[in-house]
Amino acid sequence: MKIYIISGLGADFKVLEKLEFPKQHEIIFIDWLIPEKNESFTAYINRMAEKVDDSQPFYLLGYSFGGIMVQEINKLKPAEKVVILGSIRSDKEKSRLIRAGEITRIPKILPESLFNEKTTRAYSVLRKFFDPKNPKVFQYFRVKDPYYLKWSVEKISEWKFEETSKVVQILGDRDIVFPIKNSKPDYVIKGGTHLFPATKFKEVSRILQEEFI
């Protein structure tokens, strides 16, 4: 079977490159598209879903914002199983920071110029959003288009979704982007920050071998 994979916000697939999947499956990475001006989330999801061939059974896997995206795609093209890494199964699991963005609508009014590479890099370190001890931390984030970054932050803060039983959730217990206290994950990666697919790849790979049989 094919496993379609979407990485995190602004990330290419280096953060997932060490993960090992069952050899009998075909791995297909779906790149992020740059949103069109004033494009709705629904329209964007439809464009991303076009890359999934649902003429045969398939799996979906998403990391971080990619976890949100694969759940939305699953509504249009149902998968045999959906696995999310460092992501949430419903809007009820949002962090206080993301929820505050939803309530205040601050992400929508922030200027696009704020989402440049220099600002994003400084903010990431300040918030310890990822893993400052990892020397490759900024090599994982390649999609740096300011409009895409601002649009994505808006959509994450606005996201509404009801949890479904088909989704397998894997979280790190030190993830501050999506804190584990807000969720009841199927698997917990001990000592895992938001970058656990890269730093704890052996543990994650063992789980994927079990789930994608």
Q: What would you say this structure looks like, in words?
A:
The chain has 213 residues and is of the alpha/beta class. Helix content is 34%, strand content 14%. It has helices at 41-49, 65-76, 96-104, 106-109, 117-127, 146-158, 196-199, 201-211; strands spanning 2-6, 26-29, 58-63, 81-85, 167-172, 187-189. The protein has a six-stranded parallel beta sheet, sandwiched between helices. Strand 3, helix 2 and strand 4 (81-85) form a beta-alpha-beta unit. Helix 1 packs across helix 2 (65-76) and helix 3 (96-104) crosses helix 6 (146-158). The longest helix is centred in the last third of the chain and has 13 residues, at 146-158. The radius of gyration is 16 Å and the shape is globular. The N and C termini lie close together (10 Å).
- Topology, number of strands: 6
Strand order of the largest sheet: 2-1-3-4-5-6
What is the first-to-last residue Cα distance?
10 Å
Query: Number of helix segments?
Result: 8
Structural category is alpha/beta
Organism: Chryseobacterium tagetis
Protein name: Alpha/beta hydrolase
GO molecular function: hydrolase activity
Keywords: Hydrolase
Task: Give the arrangement of secondary structure elements.
Elements: E1 2-6, E2 26-29, H1 41-49, E3 58-63, H2 65-76, E4 81-85, H3 96-104, H4 106-109, H5 117-127, H6 146-158, E5 167-172, E6 187-189, H7 196-199, H8 201-211
Parallel strand pairs: 1-2, 1-3, 3-4, 4-5, 5-6
Helix pairs in contact: 1-2, 3-6
